[in-house]
Design a protein that fits this description.
The complex is a heterodimer of chains A (131) and B (763). With 131 residues, chain A is of the alpha/beta class. Chain A is 42% helix and 20% strand. In chain A, strands 2-1-3-4-5 form a five-stranded parallel sheet, with helices on both faces. Helix content of chain B is 49%, strand content 21%. In chain B, the strands form five sheets. Chain B has a six-stranded antiparallel sheet, sandwiched between helices. Chain B is rod-shaped, with a radius of gyration of 84 Å. Classes of the chains: A alpha/beta (131), B alpha+beta (763). Chains A and B meet through helix 1 of A and helix 15 and helix 16 of B.
Chain lengths: 131, 763
C-alpha cells in the first residue's frame, strides 16, 4: 500500500515515550501518524487544514488543554466536528466519559489496560466499518 | 453527765410572790384572827367563868361571914337577954335600984365579974339605972373607956345591938316584974369578930374580911386590916372612891362589886350589912389576885396563842418549804435538764405528788435523752449524709465544672437547643466556626443563622431523623459564616430524651472540615495525579514490551522473549495494583458512582467466563454455570457487578489446582438474587477467615503458591455488594474448596452519585 493510501491518525499525547510507542505501532500497522504533544496545537493543525486525520487518538489529560474543552472546540468547526476520536486516558469519571461521548468521542480506553495491538484492532475495525 | 444534787438548793429567797411566802402569809393571815378569836373567846369565857365563880365565892364568903357575925351578935344578944333575965341578976339590980347609993354594987359587980368569966366573949357588962346612971360594971374600965354609954342606954326599950365606938354592945332594958328598972349594956370583945374575920380562906393572899362602920365622913375599920399594920380601930377618910364596897355595905347594901378598897387597890368585894347599924362586912380580894387566875389565863392564852401562832407559822413555813423545796429542786432540775444534763438526779423523795412529778420528770428527761440521742444520731447521720451529699455534689459540681470547661473549650462547636431548635447554649468554638458571638444567637434557630445553605430535602431528612426517629443525624454539609463565607462542616445532631421519651434538647456538634475537605481534595488530586503519573510510565513499559514481544522491533530470541515476557507480566501486575489501589481509595472516598441499569446477571457471568476461558483451558478446569428458574433483570450497575463476578471467578480460577471444578449458580430467593461461586480449591484457613474481606489480605496458603494478587479484590467486592444493597458471605475449608455467596435485592441497587467508576480488573 503506498503511503498516501494509508490513513492518517492524529495522536495527541503529552508523554513523549508513549507518543513514540503509539506512533511506532500505528506505523507498523499500516497507518500514517501525526503526533501532537501540546493539545493546543491540535486546533492549530486542524485550522491549518492540511489533512484531516481519519481518527484522532486523544490522551485526555493534557497539560495545556482539557480534553473536553478541546472536543468542544472541535465541535464548533464543521470541518472537523465529525472526526472520530478515540480517547485514551489513565482515568476519567463516568460523567466525563458521558460528556465525551456526547461530544463525539467514539470509544474510550484506559491507557494502562489496553495493549497496543488491541488498540490497532479497534481502530482498524472502526475505520473499516466506515468510521 | 450525772450530777447529784449535793449542792444545797440556793437559799430560798423571800419573794412576796413565792409560794413560800404566799403560804406562810396565808397561814399567818388566816391564823391570826382565828387564834385571836379563839384566844379572846376562851379568855372571855374563862374570865367570866372565873369572875362568876369568884364572885360567887365572895358572895358565899361574905354571906357566910355575915351569918357568922350575925350569929355572934345574936348570940351576944341572946346571952345578954339571958343575963338580963336571970332572977339573980334581976334581984340584984332591983335591990340596987331601990337604994340610992350605988356603992353597994359589989355584989352586982361580983356577979358581973363572974358573968365575964362565964362569958369570955364579953368584955364588960354595964348596968345602969333607970335614969341611966351607971350602977355597976364588970370592968372598971368601962367608966373610962366608954364616954357616956348611959346616954345611949336610956333610950333603949328593947334589946338592941349597937356599936359604941366600934365596939359591939348589946343594950337592953332590965325588966323587974316588967318594970324597966335599968339598962344593961354588954360589951363584947372583938375577939370573936376578929376570929371570924381572921379566917380568910378562899380569899387568897390579898383577900380579907373586914368589918367597918361609917362615922361621919369616915369609915372606921373595926377589925384589923391585913394590909395596914395598925392596931385597934382606925378610921380612914373616904377618899376619892376608895372604900367603895365598905361604903356600900355600911349603907345596908349587899352585893358584889369591883371597887377600890382602903388602899385604893382594885378589889373584888362582897359586901353585906351587919345587924348593927352603920356596920358593914366586906369580904374582899384584890382583883389582881382574884383575877390573877384570869390574868394568868389571859397571859397563858396570849402566850399559847403566840406560841401556837409561831408554831403554825413555823409549821406553815416548814410545810410550804417542804412543798417549795422539792419544787425548787424540780425547778433546778428542769434548768439543768433543759440545758442538756439528761441524767441529772432530782432526788426528791417527799413521797407525795411532787415526788411523783419528779419521777415523771426524770422519766421524761430520760425519754428526751433517748430521743435526743436518737435525734443526735439522726442529726449526725443526716449531717454525715449531707456532708457526703455535699461532698458528692461538690465533686459533682467539680465534675460539672470540668465538663462545663470541657464543653466550653472543646475545639468542636457544641450547640444545645430546645426541641424547637432554639439555641439554649453554644460554646466558644461557635465564634471560630460560624463567626457569630454566643450572645447574639441565643434563642435563635441555627438554620436561620449559619445553616440554610443546603437544600430543603436535606433539612427535611435531618429533622425527620432527629425529631421523629429520635436518632443521631451525622452528615457533612455546607454552612455559611456570619460574613457570608461558606464552609464545609461535619455535623452530628443528637436528640436528648427525657424519661417519657420526648425530646428535651438537641445537642449539635459541628466541625469545620473545610481544611479536611481541602485535604481530601488534595488527596483526590494527588491520587489522580499519582495515578496519571504512575500509569503513564506503566503504559510505556507495557506498550514497548508488547511491541518487542510482537517483533515490531525485530524478532526476539527465545531468551529475549522470555525476559520480555517477565517484564510485560510484572508490569501488568503493577498496573493491576495501581488499579486496585485507585479503586480502594475511590471506594473509601465514596466516589464510586453506582448507575443501576436493568441487567441480566447471567450475561455478566458469561462475559466474565469468556474472558477467563484461556486460563480455564490452560488449567484444565471444569466450570459449570446454572441458573434457577426465570431470573429477572436486576437494576444494578453492570460495571460494578461485573467486577464482582470477575473477582470471584478469577479467584476461583487462580486458587484451584489443575483439573479442579468451579460452579456458578444464580437463583432467586424471595426478594433476593443469590449468586454462588464455588470451587474445589485450596480453601481459606480457618484462623484467617475473619480477615478475608480486609484490605491487602492474602491467605498464607496461597501466598506460597502464587505471589500474584493484590489482596484488595474481596475488599472491593464487599464494598460494591454493600453499596448495592446486598450481602456477601462464604464457606471454606482448607484443602477442600471455597464457596462464596452474595445477594442482590430484586428491586435493585440505589443509584449513587460518584465521579468515578471502578477500574476494570485485568483477568
Amino acid at each position: 500500500m503506498d503511503e498516501n493510501n494509508k490513513q492518517l491518525i492524529m495522536v495527541v499525547e503529552d508523554d513523549e515515550p508513549l507518543l513514540f510507542a503509539i506512533q511506532k505501532k500505528l506505523q507498523s500497522s499500516g497507518f500514517r501518524t501525526i503526533g501532537i504533544i501540546d493539545g493546543k496545537q491540535v486546533l492549530d493543525y486542524l485550522k491549518k487544514g492540511d489533512e484531516i486525520p481519519s481518527l484522532i487518538w486523544l490522551d485526555y489529560y493534557l497539560p495545556s488543554i482539557n480534553g473536553l474543552e478541546l472536543l468542544t472546540q472541535m465541535k464548533k468547526n464543521e470541518k472537523y466536528q465529525n472526526i472520530p476520536v478515540f480517547v485514551i486516558s489513565n482515568t476519567a469519571g463516568p460523567e466525563k466519559i458521558h460528556a465525551m461521548m456526547a461530544l463525539g468521542v467514539k470509544k474510550y480506553f484506559l491507557k494502562a489496560e489496553i495493549r497496543l495491538d488491541e488498540m490497532i484492532e479497534e481502530i482498524k475495525t472502526f475505520l473499516n466499518k466506515g468510521g | 453527765m450525772n450530777q447529784q444534787i449535793n449542792e444545797k438548793p440556793r437559799k430560798i429567797k423571800f419573794k412576796l410572790s413565792s409560794i413560800q411566802s404566799k403560804l406562810t402569809l396565808a397561814f399567818i393571815l388566816l391564823l391570826i384572827p382565828v387564834v385571836a378569836l379563839i384566844a379572846i373567846a376562851s379568855f372571855r369565857n374563862a374570865q367570866s367563868l372565873i369572875s362568876e365563880r369568884t364572885f360567887e365565892q365572895l358572895e358565899y364568903i361574905v354571906n357566910a361571914k355575915q351569918k357568922e357575925v350575925t350569929k355572934v351578935i345574936q348570940k351576944s344578944l341572946n346571952q345578954t337577954k339571958t343575963i338580963a333575965s336571970q332572977p339573980q341578976f334581976l334581984e340584984l339590980v332591983d335591990k340596987l335600984s331601990k337604994e340610992k347609993e350605988t356603992e353597994n354594987n359589989d355584989q352586982l359587980v361580983e356577979y358581973l365579974e363572974n358573968l365575964l368569966v362565964l362569958y369570955p366573949t364579953f368584955t364588960d357588962i354595964i348596968v345602969s339605972g333607970k335614969d341611966g346612971k351607971l350602977i355597976a360594971s364588970a370592968s372598971s374600965q368601962a367608966l373610962k373607956t366608954s364616954p357616956q354609954p348611959a346616954a345611949n342606954l336610956s333610950q333603949t326599950e328593947d334589946f338592941e345591938i349597937t356599936d359604941q365606938a366600934g365596939i359591939l354592945a348589946v343594950n337592953g332594958p332590965i325588966l323587974v316584974s316588967q318594970e324597966p328598972t335599968g339598962f344593961i349594956s354588954v360589951l363584947t370583945s372583938q375577939e370573936e369578930l376578929i376570929e371570924i374575920v381572921k379566917v380568910h380562906s378562899g380569899l387568897g393572899q390579898s383577900g380579907e374580911v373586914i368589918i367597918g362602920k361609917v362615922e361621919g365622913a369616915d369609915i372606921l375599920y373595926l377589925t384589923p386590916l391585913r394590909h395596914i399594920q395598925k392596931k385597934g380601930n382606925f378610921s380612914l377618910s373616904v377618899k376619892g372612891n376608895r372604900h367603895l364596897p365598905m361604903v356600900l355595905a355600911t349603907q345596908k347594901l349587899s352585893g358584889v362589886i369591883i371597887g377600890k378598897d382602903y388602899r385604893g387597890v382594885q378589889v373584888l368585894a362582897g359586901y353585906q350589912p351587919l345587924p348593927i347599924s352603920n356596920w358593914g362586912l366586906v369580904a374582899k380580894i384584890d382583883t389582881a389576885e382574884a383575877f390573877e387566875q384570869i390574868n394568868r389565863l389571859r397571859n397563858e392564852l396570849i402566850g399559847i396563842s403566840m406560841l401556837v401562832l409561831l408554831l403554825f407559822i413555823l409549821v406553815g413555813f416548814l410545810v410550804s418549804r417542804s412543798i417549795t423545796q422539792p419544787l425548787h429542786k424540780l425547778h433546778l432540775g428542769t434548768e439543768k435538764i433543759g440545758k442538756g444534763e439528761w441524767d441529772y438526779q432530782l432526788n426528791i423523795d417527799t413521797g407525795d405528788e411532787v415526788e411523783q412529778l419528779a419521777h415523771e420528770f426524770t422519766n421524761m428527761a430520760q425519754e428526751l435523752k433517748a430521743s435526743y440521742a436518737g435525734l443526735e444520731k439522726k442529726v449526725q447521720d443526716r449531717t454525715w449524709e449531707l456532708q457526703s451529699q455535699k461532698e458528692t455534689s461538690e465533686s459533682l459540681a467539680e465534675d460539672l465544672k470540668k465538663f462545663q470547661l470541657a464543653v466550653e473549650n472543646a475545639s468542636d462547636q457544641i450547640v444545645i437547643t430546645d426541641p424547637d431548635a432554639k439555641i439554649l447554649y453554644a460554646n466558644k468554638s461557635l465564634e471560630k466556626t460560624t463567626g457569630f458571638v454566643v450572645d447574639e444567637i441565643l434563642g435563635k434557630n441555627p438554620g436561620k443563622l449559619w445553616g440554610g445553605v443546603m437544600k430543603k430535602p436535606y433539612f427535611k431528612k435531618m429533622w425527620k431523623t432527629i425529631k421523629e426517629e429520635k436518632k443521631t443525624f451525622t452528615s457533612e454539609l455546607r454552612n455559611k459564616r456570619k460574613n457570608g463565607q461558606e464552609y464545609f462542616a461535619a455535623i452530628s445532631i443528637t436528640p436528648i430524651l427525657d424519661e417519657t421519651g420526648n425530646v428535651r434538647f438537641f445537642v449539635g456538634l459541628e466541625r469545620d472540615i473545610t481544611k479536611a475537605k481541602e485535604v481530601d481534595k488534595m488527596k483526590t488530586e494527588f491520587i489522580s495525579v499519582a495515578s496519571h503519573q504512575l500509569r503513564t510510565p506503566l503504559s510505556a513499559i507495557k506498550w514497548f514490551s508488547e511491541m518487542l514481544l510482537s517483533g515490531d522491533a525485530g524478532k526476539p530470541t527465545k531468551e529475549q522473549n522470555e525476559f520480555l515476557q517477565q517484564i510485560y507480566d510484572s508490569n501488568d501486575r503493577m498496573i493491576d495494583l495501581v488499579n486496585a489501589l485507585l479503586n480502594v481509595s475511590r471506594i473509601e472516598q465514596g466516589r464510586i458512582a453506582i448507575e443501576p441499569k436493568p441487567t441480566n446477571l447471567l450475561k455478566l457471568v458469561d462475559e466474565v467466563i469468556i474472558e477467563l476461558t484461556p486460563k480455564i483451558k490452560e488449567r484444565k478446569l471444569k466450570i459449570t454455570v446454572s441458573k434457577h428458574q426465570q431470573l429477572p433483570k436486576v437494576s444494578i450497575d453492570p460495571k460494578l457487578i461485573r467486577q464482582v463476578y470477575a473477582n470471584l471467578l478469577s479467584n476461583a480460577v487462580k486458587y484451584t489446582p489443575n483439573k479442579g471444578e468451579i460452579t456458578v449458580f444464580v437463583s432467586r430467593k424471595g426478594k433476593e438474587i443469590i449468586s454462588q461461586v464455588s470451587d474445589t480449591g485450596y480453601g481459606i484457613p480457618k484462623g484467617q477467615q475473619k480477615r478475608v474481606f480486609t484490605r491487602f489480605f492474602r491467605a498464607d496458603n496461597i501466598r506460597k503458591i502464587s505471589t500474584d494478587g493484590t489482596g484488595l479484590g474481596l475488599y472491593i467486592v464487599k464494598s460494591v455488594i454493600d453499596s448495592s444493597g446486598g450481602k456477601i458471605w462464604f464457606k471454606s475449608e482448607e484443602g477442600k474448596g471455597t464457596t462464596f455467596w452474595f445477594t442482590l435485592p430484586v428491586k435493585g441497587a440505589k443509584s449513587q452519585k460518584g465521579d468515578r467508576s471502578l477500574e476494570d480488573l485485568k483477568l
